[in-house]
Design a protein that fits this description.
Blueprint (H helix, E strand, L loop, with lengths): L1 H9 L3 H12 L1 H13 L8 H7 L6 H10 L1 H15 L3 H11 L2 H7 L8 H10 L12 E3 H8 L3 H13 L3 E5 L2 E4 L5 H14 L2 H17 L1 H24 L2 E2 L5 H6 L7 H14 L4 E3 H12 L6 H20 L3 E7 L4 E7 L21 H5 L2 H9 L8 E2 L2 H22 L1 H9 L5 H18 L5 H12 L11 H14 L27 H6 L2 H11 L7 H5 L6 H25 L8 H7 L1 H15 L4 H16 L10 H17 L4 H7 L10 H8 L11 E2 L1 H8 L2 H6 L9 H11 L25 E2 L7 H4 L14 H9 L9 H11 L8 H8 L19 E4 L4
Parallel strand pairs: 9-10
Antiparallel strand pairs: 1-3, 2-3, 4-8, 5-7, 6-7, 6-11
Helix pairs in contact: 1-2, 2-3, 2-22, 3-22, 4-10, 5-6, 5-23, 6-7, 9-11, 9-18, 10-11, 10-22, 11-16, 11-18, 12-16, 13-14, 13-17, 14-17, 16-18, 17-18, 20-42, 21-31, 23-27, 23-40, 24-25, 24-40, 25-29, 25-41, 27-29, 29-36, 29-38, 29-41, 30-31, 32-42, 33-34, 33-41, 41-42
The structure holds a DNA duplex (15 and 15 nucleotides).
Length: about 850
DNA sequence: ACCTCCCGCCATGCT
DNA sequence: AGCATGGCGGGAGGT
């Protein structure tokens, strides 16, 4: 197991390389490996499924047990696998299954549709890689391999990868090969997307559409005009930009070039979709609106139903992936008309600028930087070369890029012939499975241990793992070590943590004392994930406000808090491992290097021009700068001391979520999934285009409320293990932080509680994301148990605890702070990045709808 | 009956 | 031509 862990942590892709060691771990793995070769899908195997079945579950019996416990379905799978294991011919195996199992049984054994969901698949996928991979290692992803390991058709992997690519979490390296960047670039990417979104006036478009709709309700004639209006406007200036794929500095190109094909595609749609969240005040976007806007861009004119339908389908695909990343959460917005599916942004708040202050990209750039105000400057100063500008790729540029890339690819691809590797890697299977196992285990663990007192330990363990650092592995590089070290501190709950004085000190041994406090784990895991994990089980910390709140329910907010925490956890979860970690790494440095920085730089430079349009950034940035400065002078701040960490987290979290927006926003912004923006203005603005300003009532379901309450701070603050922090505390904290408005308190009762005067009736019902289940662990999970009992480690990830309050912000914060490109030091940039948002805001404010808006989060289905 | 969205056909475009 | 990508929408599972 250890080996596996190491491998996993270090470099996911490496696993393939590492495989050998992995194999050792389990005989089964070996078998799989051997078997796989037979398949010999040099080309892309059409149906990995078969293959996969055999492979995946090699993991330890313990894990299996856990998993089985978790789900009967899983159990069935295992059974199947067992059958397969022996076999060389998959078909035969299947037959056997059929024979052995009665029709019903067989059917049962068949994974249900849910099990095949893209969200779950994405979770599995994500579990294979660390949120913050060590750049030094090559984190290559072989699509074939992954498809096999996950037992899905490659087509599905493309869906996931395309979305991840849109976020620059992966980049195409060559045919069949992608490089995993994890979340290193995420913040930056989001910043860029936000900027682009602003440029495109998405917020305005949203408002227009809403307005239009609103009007339509009573007046058809108007509708059209409005629509046309909107559409035109959109298509007009923005249209062009929209079509382009927004690239990030370090990561992007290949994909685009490769895919020059259709820039609209899932990738672009994904980016646009994300932009909508980033620019809208409430950060809640309904599918309907998103689809309209996306269609509008392409073809304003026809809102053809079929087209709309197709768009919606795609959006679901994208949403599933984003949900798995804990960036969004499914909610329902209820308006007069009825209830509409929508998604709420649960990711970090982002400043308009390319966030990456010191981030990742080393390439110098120009325009963007120049434009960028302080943030960028900060980044620049800190890292001269680094600030990468973001830009939208211009079609014209694409060709150039392509040629360049093609050359590069040729080079890259040659070596890569994926197939073989994959097989070889197949060995990895062990790894992958472990991850799965880990996830499952994590879930189980969470359930079992929710209440266990040791969360902190687990967390630590997980953290390390998650961090992709392999705990004991000799392999670790300093960087990793640093990461690990830093990460934990950040992550850990305020109270809990100990140790490492500062993230900066890399030398410090990673092991954190695991305090009994539960929260610690929360830290590791990003809230979002945590949630996810839980949710599936029904544990849903988030969901159940009541339990969490028990401590003190004095205010509903508490409950809300819980939810939030959960949601946060979810959101954070993906990141968990790394999220907190301060990864000093320079993301992708390696990869980049491989790619030829020079090319990129040049490309980018050219790109910059294109992107150059973003003057907005500057403005935004300015605002952000101020904010950031105010909030956190420097990333350094973050000595992980408990106290400090808490403060930082809270702050950060609040920042992120609320982002730049006005104070009001903060409240809303809270990562909490269900949370509804308390502030009436924001909500109204976004949601309701209506011009009339009317006070709205916010109806918050308990859950949602709970969510509100959850603030990262809380999480961090509460050392208490799994249990939710007392609601009172939470409330206090939140309020204190500004996450929640005092007025907002949430009531436990299911009924909605009027929050702000303005809001008349907004009810939020938390829905859990469908995928929640699998999410839990990522990378960490895979390794069941090195040091810790397998279960524990897993648990960390998945801790179901309801309240793990990891603040989203914490994650982001951590990232920003730690991420110093060069090293530990990167104060300014990070800080800058995180806090931005204040300035922007709100177009939406304009309209205050009289309508009532209800936002409900779905609990797990 | 509606919401989701899996599944896989088949177009597209690179090699 | 062969293969990698991925657009697309039928249609089915879930609720």
């Amino acid at each position: 197991m250890e080996n596996e862990k190491e491998n996993l942590f270090f470099e996911p892709h490496k696993r393939g390389l590492m495989k050998t060691p992995l194999k050792e771990s389990t005989a089964a793995n070996i078998v799989l490996t051997e078997i796989q070769p037979d398949f010999g899908p040099l080309t892309t195997p059409t149906k990995p499924k078969e293959i996969s079945q055999g492979e995946p579950w090699t993991p330890t019996a313990n894990l299996k047990m856990l998993i089985s416990a978790v789900s009967p379905e899983i159990r069935n799978r295992d059974q199947k696998r067992g059958l397969f294991d022996g076999r060389n011919g998959l078909p035969e195996a299947k037959d056997c299954l059929h024979e052995h199992l009665s029709g019903d049984e067989y059917e049962k054994s068949q994974p249900s549709r849910k099990e095949k969901s893209l969200g779950l698949l994405c979770h599995k996928f994500l579990a294979r890689y660390p949120n913050y991979p060590n750049p030094a290692v090559n984190n290559d992803i072989c699509l074939d391999e992954v498809a096999e390991e996950l037992n899905v058709e490659r087509r599905r992997i493309y869906d996931i990868v395309n979305v991840l690519e849109s976020l620059h979490m992966v980049s195409r390296l060559a045919k069949n090969r992608y490089t995993w960047h994890g979340r290193h670039n995420l913040h930056k990417t989001l910043g860029t997307l936000k900027t682009v979104g602003e440029e495109n006036k998405y917020a305005e478009q949203i408002m227009m559409i809403k307005k239009r709709e609103y009007e339509q309700e009573f007046d058809f004639s108007k509708t059209y005009s409005l629509e046309d209006h909107i559409m035109k406007s959109n298509s007009g200036h923005d249209g062009h930009a929209d079509m382009c794929f927004v690239e990030l500095p370090g990561v992007e190109f290949r994909a685009a070039s490769v895919n020059s094909r259709k820039d609209k595609s899932l990738r672009v749609m994904s980016q646009k979709f994300v932009m909508l969240f980033l620019v809208s005040t409430p950060q809640i976007v309904s599918l309907e609106i998103a689809a309209k806007i996306l269609i509008g861009e392409d073809h304003v004119e026809d809102l053809d139903k079929s087209k709309f339908k197709t768009k919606i389908r795609r959006l679901y695909d994208i949403a599933n992936v984003l949900s798995s990343l804990n960036l969004i959460k499914k909610v329902h917005v209820t308006e007069e008309r009825g209830r509409k599916p929508a998604f709420k942004w649960t990711g970090p708040e982002i400043s308009p600028n390319p966030s990456g202050c010191g981030q990742v990209l080393p390439f110098p750039h120009s325009d963007l930087e120049a434009k960028r105000p302080s943030k960028d400057n900060c980044a620049k100063n800190l890292f001269s070369t680094r600030g990468k500008p973001n830009f939208t790729r211009h079609p014209s540029l694409i060709k150039l890029v392509k040629s360049i890339e093609s050359d590069r690819r040729k080079i890259n691809s040659a070596p890569s012939s994926p197939v073989k590797t994959s097989k070889a890697e197949s060995t990895q299977n062990s790894a992958p499975f472990p991850s799965k196992m880990a996830q499952l285990a994590a879930i189980c663990k969470m359930q079992l241990e929710e209440q266990s007192s040791e969360p902190s330990k687990k967390a630590k363990g997980q953290q390390e793992r998650s961090g992709h650092c392999k705990p004991a592995s000799p392999l670790r590089t300093l960087a990793n070590a640093e990461l690990e070290l830093t990460a934990p501190p950040l992550i850990q709950p305020l109270g809990v943590v100990p140790l490492i004085p500062s993230p900066l000190s890399p030398a410090v041994p990673v092991i954190l004392p695991q305090a009994p406090s539960g929260p610690s784990y929360a830290i590791y895991l990003q809230p979002a994930q945590a949630q996810t994990m839980t949710a599936p089980q029904g544990l849903s910390p988030t969901v159940c406000p009541a339990p969490s709140s028990k401590a003190t329910r004095s205010k509903d907010p508490t409950d809300a808090t819980t939810e939030k925490a959960a949601s946060d956890a979810k959101s954070g979860a993906p990141t968990r491992p790394g999220s907190l970690q301060p990864v000093p790494d320079r993301p992708g440095a390696k990869n980049r290097d491989q790619e030829s920085a020079g090319e990129r730089g040049s490309k980018r430079a050219s790109m910059l021009d294109d992107s150059g349009s973003k003057k907005k950034f500057k403005e935004d940035l300015k605002g952000l700068e101020n904010v950031s400065a105010t909030l956190f002078p420097s990333g350094y701040l973050i000595p992980l001391t408990q106290c400090s960490s808490l403060g930082a987290e809270s702050i950060l979290s609040s920042k992120e979520n609320s982002s730049t927006l006005s104070p009001n926003h903060r409240i809303y912004s809270s990562p909490i999934t269900g949370v509804i923006p308390v502030t009436s203005s924001e909500l109204t603005a976004v949601n309701f285009p209506s011009f009339h300003v009317t006070p709205l009532k916010l109806m918050v379901s308990p859950t949602s409320v709970a969510a509100v309450g959850n603030s990262p701070a809380l999480t961090s603050s509460h050392p208490v293990p799994g249990q939710n922090p007392s609601s009172a505390i939470v409330n206090f904290t939140l309020q204190h932080l500004g996450l929640i408005s005092p007025s907002v308190q949430v009531s436990a009762s299911p009924g909605a509680v009027p929050v702000s005067p303005r809001i008349e009736a907004v009810s939020v019902v938390p829905e859990n994301v469908g995928t929640q289940q699998g999410r839990a662990t990522r990378y960490d999970s895979p390794v069941p148990g090195q040091n810790q009992p397998s279960g524990q480690s897993v648990a960390v990830t998945g801790t179901p605890q309801p309240v793990p309050v990891t603040p989203k912000g914490s994650q982001s914060v951590a990232e920003s702070f730690f991420r110093t490109p060069g090293g530990p030091v990167k104060p300014m940039g990070a800080s800058c990045m995180d806090f931005d948002g204040a300035n922007k805001t709100s177009v939406g404010t304009l309209f205050v709808p009289q309508r009532k808006l209800e936002v409900s989060t779905e609990d797990g289905h």
